[in-house]
Specification:
The structure is a homotetramer. Chain A is of the alpha+beta class. Chain A folds into 2 domains: about 160 residues, Four Helix Bundle (Hemerythrin (Met), subunit A) (Up-down Bundle), CATH 1.20.120; about 240 residues, Alpha-Beta Complex (paralog of FGE (formylglycine-generating enzyme)), CATH 3.90.1580. Chain A contains 9 helices and 13 strands.
Amino acid sequence: MSTLTTSATYALLQRYHTTRKQTVKLCEPLEPEDTVVQPIIDVSPPKWHMAHTSWFFETFILVPHLPNYKLFHESYSYLFNSYYNSVGSRVQRDQRSTLTRPPLRDIYSYRNHVDTHITQLLEHISDEDLLNILPVLELGLQHEQQHQELLVTDIKYILSTNPLLPAYKPQSNGKVIEKATEARFLEIPGGVYKIGYTGNDFCFDNELGVHEVLVNDFEIMNRLVTNGEYLAFMEDGGYHDFRHWLDEGFAMVNCDKLEAPLYWVKQDDEWHRFTMHGLQKVNLNEPVTHISFYEANAYATWAGKHLLTEFEWEAASQVYPPQSGNFVESEHLEPIAADPAKDSLQQMYGNLWEWTYSAYHPYPGFTKAPGAIGEYNGKFMINQMVLRGGSCATPENHIRTTYRNFFHPDKRWQYTGIRLANKR
Amino acid sequence: MSTLTTSATYALLQRYHTTRKQTVKLCEPLEPEDTVVQPIIDVSPPKWHMAHTSWFFETFILVPHLPNYKLFHESYSYLFNSYYNSVGSRVQRDQRSTLTRPPLRDIYSYRNHVDTHITQLLEHISDEDLLNILPVLELGLQHEQQHQELLVTDIKYILSTNPLLPAYKPQSNGKVIEKATEARFLEIPGGVYKIGYTGNDFCFDNELGVHEVLVNDFEIMNRLVTNGEYLAFMEDGGYHDFRHWLDEGFAMVNCDKLEAPLYWVKQDDEWHRFTMHGLQKVNLNEPVTHISFYEANAYATWAGKHLLTEFEWEAASQVYPPQSGNFVESEHLEPIAADPAKDSLQQMYGNLWEWTYSAYHPYPGFTKAPGAIGEYNGKFMINQMVLRGGSCATPENHIRTTYRNFFHPDKRWQYTGIRLANKR
Amino acid sequence: MSTLTTSATYALLQRYHTTRKQTVKLCEPLEPEDTVVQPIIDVSPPKWHMAHTSWFFETFILVPHLPNYKLFHESYSYLFNSYYNSVGSRVQRDQRSTLTRPPLRDIYSYRNHVDTHITQLLEHISDEDLLNILPVLELGLQHEQQHQELLVTDIKYILSTNPLLPAYKPQSNGKVIEKATEARFLEIPGGVYKIGYTGNDFCFDNELGVHEVLVNDFEIMNRLVTNGEYLAFMEDGGYHDFRHWLDEGFAMVNCDKLEAPLYWVKQDDEWHRFTMHGLQKVNLNEPVTHISFYEANAYATWAGKHLLTEFEWEAASQVYPPQSGNFVESEHLEPIAADPAKDSLQQMYGNLWEWTYSAYHPYPGFTKAPGAIGEYNGKFMINQMVLRGGSCATPENHIRTTYRNFFHPDKRWQYTGIRLANKR
Amino acid sequence: MSTLTTSATYALLQRYHTTRKQTVKLCEPLEPEDTVVQPIIDVSPPKWHMAHTSWFFETFILVPHLPNYKLFHESYSYLFNSYYNSVGSRVQRDQRSTLTRPPLRDIYSYRNHVDTHITQLLEHISDEDLLNILPVLELGLQHEQQHQELLVTDIKYILSTNPLLPAYKPQSNGKVIEKATEARFLEIPGGVYKIGYTGNDFCFDNELGVHEVLVNDFEIMNRLVTNGEYLAFMEDGGYHDFRHWLDEGFAMVNCDKLEAPLYWVKQDDEWHRFTMHGLQKVNLNEPVTHISFYEANAYATWAGKHLLTEFEWEAASQVYPPQSGNFVESEHLEPIAADPAKDSLQQMYGNLWEWTYSAYHPYPGFTKAPGAIGEYNGKFMINQMVLRGGSCATPENHIRTTYRNFFHPDKRWQYTGIRLANKR
């Protein structure tokens, strides 16, 4: 093994183990029973997330690249494949709660087994082979980070359905901000912007196909919309006035009798929300979250503004490159109010994924990779809306300004938020 | 405390603790994750069964009768009430898998807490008070036994949905019988039979209202229908010929694409069935089980026979009083072939609940008890069919010839079986 | 052709034509568009009823018995078969509104075609052949009468869903009764009663299997429960108190948000009901109708009484043989108040089908006829409750005291009513 | 009244009456029963279309602008409002088949009543008032044309559900083309294109917000994809290979067991399709139609090509302005093969609406009109895809190159088609 590789693989192994440990850490506060249920189809059992991320490394790295590798268990490929048709049949998505076995301790053994063999593989790999597996290994780590984010949102949902409303962790690490900064609109000049990832590090295939987009002049709100601002919309009868809503959104509101964001409950005539720290009074300064695209857009319409397109968002991020944010590393796991001490554009990174009024479609040059990896993104490019910027459940080194997240417009269990634009 | 009571309460306490321990024993082979899921609405999570049976004693005995009793946990009444409207609101039946908390260990503490206080109450109770609570205490024990039976059937269903098909216990205690006894029909003379419970021990309210029923002469099959006999029906195209079926049964068969009893799977062109001991080849001599009323009746029609009414079954049990049976105490938990060494009427007790062609309706003198206990049986007297005789999941001292079990005609997850009648 | 037959067939032909004309007459007030829709699966399009009753005669009489008979249209057997699997495939029950073609005028031609050929067949039939087809011809007429009754109830439902609430016929022939007779309970002595049809005329197969049933002493209400009495139940919170209800009934009430019988609407704070004569104020003296078995039973429980079993009803009809009633011939098509001038047992015949607390099961000796006719009744003997006595939509010569009608316990679109019993 | 106006209003009146008569003409081949049913929620009863288009003129023109206008019928506003919340409550969309009354003849009277009063209004209107109502009158005519197109597609669907498969008109006016022109790809140069309507005539609000879009170089197929080409996809197992499909499309294909376009049936091992002229053998030269966006995109993926974006389509129409097309005026009502005699870009207008891979979203400057008219388009701008170019059911003077039609990606009952692009 060359010296060059030794140092590179050492760093890679470090990152591998750091990432893998984070998944386990996120599950530490859970009971075994918490890790097996699936209250809605969008939410996967935490045990499944832990196994599926290991299955990814086993299937795409160990099986093809580690000589004489023995599967941890023959049936795990069937049990823990998510949606890769190329890899074979699998437990249907809505049947994941049938997996009461293998028990949690077996999944931890599975994780250790995979980690041991990845370590072994990397410690003895040739330069050439390393270059060969690097893209998939990188994808495996990015994939694990995506599932860490889902773990947080899925755990929150699971706990919220429990009548006892248990906190994930009782104490919060949240910085207390007395009063969020005032809302302002910042000008972004129109013009031709280059859209998509142009760097040399990792990006997903859906960020490729760099292309130029003509963007009109517009203004962007300096921070996310707050609970206080959203409450004004609610108290103005926003949920009952069809004029603010897309038709399918208003149908959902009426069918599900929606009156507030997900996790909001009125107690003793006061709004509370279920958080990772238990049930708490709604803090009016914090960004409003767990709203669907429909609610985000209705709010914008009510406010006489618009949501941004994903191209406007990316253009703004070129004008004001975002620096830091409230990511999963803060261990707060809830959004934090905008800092009045900071001027300029805030909260573009972290806190909440921002709904854009852009459908999740392929960029002009988009092509699917051959084989199973090609199923990663492309087949979901219909009926979903793009979200940008990451959330308080996102790992800091996972985000980019070109990152395209996507959900159906009715989904509310993610850490979603609203940023407004002024257009002409 | 009088000496008389001391001995009576001692025996009662013995029975109380024996019964309570059996519930815990049945759950021992489970993982915590097994105890929280609810794959279909009929199946309750085992953890819920363990808590609910304790809630029954707490709510109906300890709270009203033990001075200064402190609830184990305020919210448990909401969490573990099953269907007693009188007692207040509760977790909806289809939401029982939301109860990932309280964790399993808390439920064990709850059980101990209740047991300790019941012991304390009984050890210091006066004669008068004991007489007062005896009926409810007895009901609580019978109730716990009913849930033990459900525990077995629900655990079987939960394990069966797992792609790994794990055995509840790998080894079986089943007596091996090479060849089931030949089928014969025994005459039961017609006449006026007294129906309902006339003894001095416990019975459920639905067995009261003793009344006379005119029964015609008929003949009863000496044992249950076997897998081999049922397979002949299947191989004759029984599931595809509408002439054998009630219309709603045939609709179910077509809609759900049924081809065989529940838990049957064809592997390498041979029929297997999922049992409490894992997947096994179908034994042709054993009684066929996990069939709906529709299948039982279609089989009877195909065979040119009938199902019995519940009155005919009870009349036959007066002519040939059943002795022993394959109950939960055998720890086999699956039906056993009829013994060729025994003549006369077999398998009336234990093995499998026998579908009758009698709707579960009130007997003439039926009245509901006042209060919550009145919700025990009466409100279910519609759209269900009566089953008689107990099964391999029934505690031996729980059954009587007058016992009326009841399920909807499409249910298959119980240990149900078929006995034929010849009528004129 | 013998003289004897000539006169017999003449009478039969008379009856045939009278019956057939009545079907057409019932449809006269309809628009073509009224005759094609199917708002719920229980309700068939009137055009379909008109065609299906003709198909019955064509399929079971003309095709097998009239030499050289040519089908009116090849596809009609597929289009207008209801549920006879033996006769071949058919338009699925919930797809009957697809039959916009053949248009109404073709169906009238179809009816004429069938009538002409039946006439031709009967005019030239030999004695022997007549005896041969008589049972099926009789069944065809009874079948047509059953569909006349369904026509009335289905037309009422179709018109009721129209926002204009059009009357079937604006004027009523109803006798105005100022005040219904007082409710009284009449004693029926217990004993062994012969149940089932013993006469020499027509009856359905489900009335056969005459057998003896032991009935206890009981008392029967002298008339049907009135709107006024039912309103007292409603105003006492009857629809909101679980104690009166079977569990599945209370679930239906809550799921469908039921507050009153079908067709009742509150306008300007006063209860109205949609009738065949348009929307009218609820008349408190008239019998309450369009209630499910669940509502009937909840009312009885609230009133501290019971519904009768079908055997008690038949026993009472032997003690007090019913004479006349408000049948379809009165052309009122709604129930009429009980006559205060009449003493004794009233309204057993006509007005409203009376829900009994008896499941629709086979009598002891029940056997299905071979072939398609065998599908007439037997295959529906599950999950349905027996109703007795006929309604204001029943032809007078169609009813018998042994007649067993049957519907699922949640059905409300039929002319159903409540009669109470006092039991001990 | 000024002379100027006289001639302008005369022309307008001519157009008004021509348009209105076309609606009636389209319904002439129908039976009254055809005009009332609603087999799926997307399809409205033809009678409803006829009434609703009249309601539009009555509500938005006659009521506000004709002094002393008396409503034809008070309830019609409730009955025939489609989706305008601003105008009040209405019959729910899935309840339109309840409107068996008013009968068809009343709807014709309604149309005449509205036409008479519109004539009266226009004959006496002042210049100023005319200018005032012109935009709404124009919208009313465009609206009526949209419903004419829906009438054709809805009638086709209604007839197709009838087991008799009746033809709308037996004879076809279709030009017979022996062999469709060969497929070729034509270059469209990239660059900044002006998108949206810039003319002075009518356009819908969703075409406004003219803006520039950067389009890459691409190639466009010279005609629509044919049945023959699509059949090659089918025969290559296209419906069973997940790699060609968007995930939600493949789920639909499996759930609905799709094997071919809507209206295709295999008879005697040969593909037929239901057309407006009855069931016919599939003509391989004709454009494939009645396919969902999912099928269109799967075909494109299989062929190694792409669908166009709506901007590319509009750019191509600027390079090759479309001239004529197969519109509703040809009275063929089915697509026609591409003419081998014609070179260059064909079939951009008429024949089939072409699915684009563009979500139906607002253009940058989009604003909703105030009041009910503002509900026309904007509230549907989610989850739908844009289609371009019109179909054989579109009136010729209704189409423009900037026209944006839109449907959900799973819809198949419209005349939809596929055009491919080559991209780099």
